[in-house]
Amino acid sequence: MICLLLCFCVAHADDGYRLWLKYDLLSNSSKRSEYRRFARFIEVRTEPTPVVETALAELQRGIQGLLGTKVGTTPKSRGGVILQKDGSLPEEGYLIESKDGNLLISGSDDRGILYGCFELLRLMQTESQVSGIKIRQAPKIRLRMLNHWDNPLGTIERGYAGASLWKWYELPETIDPRYRDYARANASIGINAVAVNNVNASARFLTAEYLNKVKALADVLRPYGIRVFLSINFASPKILGKLPTSDPLAPEVRNWWNEKVKEIYRYIPDFGGFLVKANSEGEPGPQEHGRTHADGANMLAEALRPFQGKVIWRAFVYSPDPAGDRFKEAYHEFKPLDGNFDKNVIVQVKNGPIDFQPREPFHPLFGAMPKTPLAMEFQITQEYLGFSTNLVYLATLFKECLETDTYASGKGSTVARIIDGSVHQYPFTAIAGVANSGSDRNWTGHLMSQANWYAFGRLAWDHTLSEAQIADEWIKMTWTKDPAAVSGIKNILLRSREIYVNHTTPLGLHHVIGQGIHFGPEPWLSRSARPDWTSVYYHRADSSGIGFDRTISGSNALGLYRPEVQQQWKDPETCDVKYLLWFHRVSWNKKLSTGRLLWDEFCMRYYQGIEGVRWMQDEWNKVRPLVDPEMHADVAGRLAVQLREALNWRDACILYFQTFSQKPVPSPLQPPTRTLEELKKIVEIYQLK
Ligand code: BDP
After folding, report:
1. In this structure, how many other beta carbons lie within 10 angstroms of the beta carbon of residue 57?
2. Contact of 23 with 480, CB cutoff 8 Å
3. Fewest beta carbons within 10 Å, which of 189, 328, 345, 597?
4. pTM for the whole thing?
5. Where do the domains of the chain lie, and which CATH numbers do they carry?
6. Phi, psi of 680 (to 5 degrees)
7. How many angstroms separate the alpha carbon of residue 377 from the centre of ligand 1?
8. Cα-flanking dihedrals φ and ψ of residue 137, to 5°?
């Protein structure tokens, strides 16, 4: 009876809460015995600081779960894990090696030990070889950060997985245990910094009341090696300090920031610094006082300098110029300032020149600011990639950008090597991801979106990892170790982004989303508060063709890249079709390198996208017997939603652009059975208040 009850309890369905840190008993008994050989004890041969205590606790928890045996800390002569420091290793680095019958995890510092422990757990979770190993690792980028766009009232800007994790009204007295689980997840993938609030920042985070709350969060995150940053409102001296101005060169304003920073460090002695969105989309900034981004950033840098704090200044700026090209604006505002920023300023640049589209060419600032450390900003939350109902594995998007060559300092100057500092010898390096986690029980809404959080962390640590390897690890830790299922799910992940691009914005089409909510198609959008918030600004379709001419005969945004890059994209004949409409205006009748006419190829891609979603559904059905049933059902449901939404995208775009091309959907494709008016109505519903 007891046994039956026990089985019943153990067999409960999973809900995704444990992410990739499940630590369930390994079913492979030979692996269990291999690992037991070094799991008889864990000895800590260094000062037991809070971070080292975390490492120890996590290792004990993991080993107990995976092997089913408790592991104590009384040293024996052999058969244990030894945690120790080795100052010769690079910062945050570790070395794991078998020695004299023990497994040594040496860390350069506390964090190195923590990351080494998580690496060992990952090896065990994925049933990898551990005996005889020697693994030496160090992060390629120093600041590996999540940016939460979380608001004080608990909503998340562009968050699709529930409310904010941070319960501001309950803090600092009540500490939700979830904060710790969040910290564990991050530490396990090497994330070491978190900006907790929205870049469209409320000044209230700088009040004593809120600093007390932020301190409580910082205290939870610290033992996991994570530092806290705050997004600030540039007009805070005026809003909070009641000063007549927030001019960065005004002595009273500088003084206000100096005092504020001192106050913050009294609450949070290891405070990371400020993340700043200024003079962008209506946010205040130095320009309204006739000052530059550098003036603004340097004022904050001065206040933070005594505490080694950093200013992360965002380059996401674009002024509304109907005749201009938004693609070029950040470059024009920032390039002339190269060399003018203080040493503790990092300029954070989105991966592409417009705004987190399903596919963008890399931002032309990468490679153009040799004297200013540039941080990468990726968006993990799927603002433009179907929210949390579409399956899109973003490691492919991240890698595509990171591996593109900027030619800034000759061949091989990839975006990854710009941001890891190796091309320009940046003194400090950083990468940020806009978080996709929220209060949903499974953290990310779509269970497959957990992979995007995981992949961001892994690539931030080591951008040379392949998207396939990361997927492999994540699937084995999250879903199953069955080889056929692993390969089936991996295939889905690896193809998912291209499928999404095809059923939404193929051939370099971009920014034709529903206004405001950024969901669903609205290619007909022609009026908005700003021209560059419409769709027609980007696709420029008419009866003669479609696409934004960014060559020398158009806006010449292409001219912002090095000649070698221009060479790849400047000729519509040879430009990779995936970027075609980003740079060229192309006639509907133009024969492409694929052998098809533009209009035919355009239609074909949308239909391929639909086939892709159906294929994902079929592949997903195949793995049903091999994974948790509730989690399977959840993803299956979302795939069905994705198919419905993909059909909306296809029909809306084909019917709308057909009004210009005046050409039939090529056979053997079956033309949409709905009318454009019907599609417009569906999309209208998304926009209703
Ligand atoms: C845009 C988002 C907006 C953000 C902005 C940003 O729609 O909500 O505030 O990016 O990055 O894509 O600042």
Report:
1. 14
2. no
3. 597
4. 0.97
5. 2-9+18-137 (3.30.379.10), 143-465 (3.20.20.80), 501-548+585-687 (3.90.1330.10)
6. -60, -40
7. 12
8. -140, 145
